[in-house]
Automatic annotation (TrEMBL):
This is Major facilitator superfamily domain-containing protein. The chain crosses the membrane at residues 36-57, 77-94, 106-123, 129-151, 163-188, 194-213, 274-296, 308-326, 396-416. Residues 435-488 are annotated as: Disordered. Its main location: membrane.
C-alpha cells in the first residue's frame, strides 16, 4: 500500500514540476519584462474560448442526456444549473488567487485539471457522477477570469480596451461555438464525442500555453488567503468607480439573460413555432458584435473616457430592446435586430467597464475582477428569474418592458457620476471625455514596464536582491529618471 502511495506521490510531484518549469523563452526578466504581443493576446482569447465552452456544451444535449441516463428532462436540467453554481464557486474562491500567486503555473494547473475532468465526463455512465464531475470542472473553468485582469494589467493603457475586447470576444465565441459544435456532433454521433473533443482541445491549448505563456511575478507577497477574500468586500465599497461599474454590470447582464431566456419561449410559441435547431441558430447573431467589438474598442474606447463607450453601449442596448419588444410578436426580424444590436451594445459596455475597473487598484486586479463578476453573475440570476416570471405573467411585451426598465436604471447610475468625479455622485472635474494621457502614463508606470510588460513589486529591488522601502524605491526611481520606463 505504501508503494502505491509513493508512486502516486511521485506522479503528482512530476506533474507539478512539469507545470511549474518555465521554458527559457518564457522566463521573467525584470530588466526586459515580457510584452503583451498581438499573438499572445489572441492565444489568451482562444484559451478563453475553449475553456468557457465547458459551461455550455450540455445546453443542446439535455434531451439526449435525459434519454442516455434514463432520467426526466427536469433532472437533466440540473446539469447547467450545477455548472453555473460551480462557476460561481470558482469565481469567488479561486479567481482572487491571481493576486497572490504566479499566474502562469496557476493557469496551467487549472487548464490541466479541467481537461482531465473532461475525460471523466466522456466515460461515466452514472448521472450522479456526471453532475458531480461537471460541478468540479466548472469550478476550475475560471481561467478566463484569471486572464482578463492579467491582460488588463499587461496592456499599455492606450491599448487596454483593445486587448480586453479581444479576450472578451474569445469568451463570447466560446459560448457560441459550444452550443453550435455540441448540437452538430450530437446530431451525427454520440454525445460523448462532444466531451472527447473538449478533452483534446483543452490539452492542445494547455500545450500551447506551456510553450508560449510568459511567467509573471506575483502581484502581492505575504498576503493571507482569507484576508485577501475579506478584502474583496473592502474593495467593493472603497472605490466609487468600481461600485458604479458593478451596478451598471448588474443591470446590463440582467437584461442580457432576460432577453435570451424569454426569446426561446417567444420563438417556440405562436406565431413562429420554431424547432430547437432553428432557435439555436439565433445565437449566430452574436458573431457580428464579436468581431466588431475589438475595432470599436481600438477606435473609441481606447481614445475616449470609458464613460463614452458605456453610454454608447447602453444606447445600443436600449434601441435594440425597444425594437425587439414592440415588433417581436409581429415579425421575426425584430428579435434578430435586437439580438445583433443588443449584443454589440452589451459587449462594448462590458469591455469599457472592465477597462475602467482594472485601473482602480492594479495590484488587486483579480479581486477587483471578482467583485465585478459577482455583481454581473447576480444580475444574470435576477434577469433569468424576472424574465421567466414576467413572460409567464404577461408575455413578451411585459418582459421586454422590464428590460427597458433595467437598462434605464443602468443609464441613471452612469449619469449620476461624471467621468472626472472622484466622489460618489456629481460631475466635478468637467465633462471632458477625452482620455487623459498624463493619467495613462502614470497608470502605465504603476502597472507595466516599457511596452506593456509587468513590473515586479515596488517593494523589491531585483538588482540588489533585497526588499526596499517605498521611500527608497521612489528615490531610486528618481535617480533613474530618463531610463525610459514610461509608456508612450
Amino acid at each position: 500500500m505504501s508503494d502505491d502511495k509513493q508512486q502516486s506521490s511521485g506522479i503528482l510531484r512530476r506533474t507539478w514540476d512539469t507545470i511549474n518549469w518555465v521554458p527559457p523563452l518564457c522566463r521573467y526578466d525584470p530588466k526586459n519584462p515580457p510584452k503583451l504581443t498581438m499573438a499572445l493576446n489572441i492565444l489568451f482569447g482562444i484559451a478563453c474560448t475553449f475553456t468557457v465552452a465547458n459551461l455550455y456544451y450540455s445546453h443542446p444535449l439535455l434531451e439526449i442526456l435525459a434519454v442516455s441516463f434514463n432520467i426526466s428532462q427536469e433532472r437533466a436540467s440540473l446539469i447547467p444549473t450545477v455548472a453555473q453554481a460551480g462557476y460561481a464557486t470558482g469565481l469567488l474562491f479561486l479567481c482572487p488567487l491571481g493576486d497572490i500567486v504566479r499566474r502562469r503555473p496557476f493557469v496551467l494547473l487549472l487548464m490541466a485539471f479541467t481537461a482531465t475532468i473532461s475525460l471523466g465526463l466522456c466515460l461515466t455512465k452514472s448521472f450522479e457522477a456526471f453532475v458531480a464531475l461537471n460541478f468540479i470542472m466548472s469550478v476550475t473553468t475560471v481561467t478566463p477570469q484569471i486572464m482578463l485582469p492579467l491582460v488588463g494589467q499587461l496592456a499599455a493603457p492606450n491599448r487596454r480596451a483593445t486587448a480586453i475586447a479581444i479576450v472578451v470576444s474569445g469568451l463570447l465565441l466560446g459560448i457560441l461555438i459550444a452550443r453550435l459544435l455540441s448540437g452538430i456532433i450530437a446530431n451525427y454521433s454520440s454525445w460523448r464525442n462532444v466531451y472527447w473533443m473538449s478533452f483534446a482541445l483543452q490539452y492542445l491549448i494547455l500545450i500551447l500555453l506551456w510553450f508560449l505563456m510568459p511567467d509573471y511575478p506575483q502581484s502581492n507577497t505575504g498576503l493571507n488567503y482569507f484576508r485577501m477574500l475579506f478584502s474583496i468586500l473592502e474593495i467593493i465599497v472603497k472605490y466609487p468607480l468600481l461600485v458604479q461599474s458593478c451596478l451598471i454590470g448588474f443591470f446590463v447582464s440582467s437584461t442580457f439573460t432576460s432577453f435570451w431566456t424569454t426569446l426561446t419561449f417567444l420563438l417556440s410559441d405562436d406565431p413562429y413555432n420554431y424547432s430547437t435547431i432553428v432557435i439555436g441558430l439565433f445565437a449566430l447573431a452574436g458573431i457580428v458584435p464579436m468581431f466588431f467589438g475589438p475595432f470599436f474598442a481600438r477606435h473609441v474606447t481606447d481614445k475616449f473616457d470609458t464613460h463614452v463607450s458605456v453610454l454608447m453601449g447602453q444606447g445600443f442596448c436600449l434601441i435594440g430592446i425597444i425594437i425587439g419588444t414592440f415588433t417581436g410578436k409581429i415579425s421575426v426580424a425584430g428579435p434578430i435586430v435586437q439580438a445583433i444590436i443588443f449584443d454589440f451594445g452589451q459587449q462594448i459596455s462590458q469591455v469599457a467597464n472592465r477597462t475602467a475597473v482594472y485601473s482602480v487598484e492594479p495590484k488587486a486586479a483579480s479581486r477587483v475582477n471578482t467583485a465585478y463578476m459577482l455583481c454581473v453573475f447576480c444580475g444574470q440570476l435576477m434577469g433569468t428569474a424576472a424574465g421567466n416570471h414576467l413572460y409567464a405573467s404577461g408575455g413578451w411585451v411585459l418582459s421586454g418592458g422590464a428590460n427597458i426598465g433595467f437598462m434605464g436604471a443602468a443609464m441613471v447610475i452612469l449619469l449620476l457620476r461624471g467621468p472626472k468625479e472622484t466622489g460618489w455622485v456629481g460631475w466635478r472635474g468637467g465633462i471632458d471625455l477625452r482620455r487623459n494621457k498624463r493619467e495613462d502614463k502614470k497608470d502605465g508606470k504603476e502597472e507595466t514596464g516599457e511596452g506593456g510588460g509587468v513590473r515586479e513589486e515596488q517593494d523589491h529591488d531585483p538588482e540588489k536582491g533585497k526588499c526596499v522601502s517605498p521611500e527608497q524605491d521612489a528615490q531610486s526611481e528618481a535617480e533613474k529618471k530618463g531610463a525610459g520606463n514610461d509608456i508612450d
